Amino acid sequence: MSRKSDAYLSGVPMKPYDLVREGLIALGIVAVVVVALALIFKSPDAPTVRGEDVATNHPLDFLKTAADFLSGESALQSYGPPYTRDTDNIQRILGPGPATVLGVTMPLDAEQDLVIAPLHKVAMLNKDVDAALKVWTAAKEDQQKAWSKAYSDALDKAEETNGQVKVPTGEYGPVPVMMLGMLALGRAGLLEGALTSSDRLPYTLDNTRAMLFFQEDVDQNVADGFDMLGTQWGITHEVGNLPGPWWLWPYAIWYQIPPLSTAPNADVIVGSMMIVFFLLLLFAPFIPVLKHLPRWIPMYRIIWRDWYEREEKAVTKKRVT
Questions:
Q1: What is the pTM of this model?
Q2: Are residues 109 and 159 in the same domain?
């Protein structure tokens, strides 16, 4: 150290500290604990939920998802920012919510982006889908809504047998052919590619649309099966060989405690609480009460107990002599 730092630290009690050794010891202990817990509890090695799997094994759920987007009945279409301008359902505390301030940063037209656009790719190879899309485009908006709404409602009464979905007879216009086109796209394993493709091909890194396609019923059902819902500490869980984001438990814990466990604006409340806690920690040395806690709760004496023991012995020895 320099003379200036030596003079500044003059009279301050010091002790040697091997940071590398302590770090290696801590790393070793953590590694043993992690391996032991992994062997005891393990994590389910579940495969990724793909459009191909949903379309093949659960075609009715696949059709309901696509039909809801087409009819405008999906919750995504009224989610609000950052996808749509609908602000009725956003979370807020005391006035406009953060989503309103940030605005629509990822504009999304679910009907066009998640259904019609992928079908245009199918139409290049399927004449029936091409003809159905032309009928759909030529129809007025009211007629489109009537067709899609009738088909979406009919799916609630549909029957699934050996991978085939039988929908009750009704006035659905070109919608059944369009939905079968979506189902074929999913079964071919091309749904994600059709949703994420753009002018930047082949280097498309934005998978938002593909992830949003099944984010309602399908992903919720899968997450529930693995105890990964928000009410089940889901944010800190994971499947496969990698650990979940355990460092988020200070956030996740609040979602398990009433009334936040059922609050409609829990995300904003928890986020605001964590910001306040972070600011308290950041400015603790300047806050009158908090800055005196180390003196009132002398944990430092436990950490530096060997030094204090030597000091107390030295003081006692001086008094005796």
A1: 0.74
A2: yes
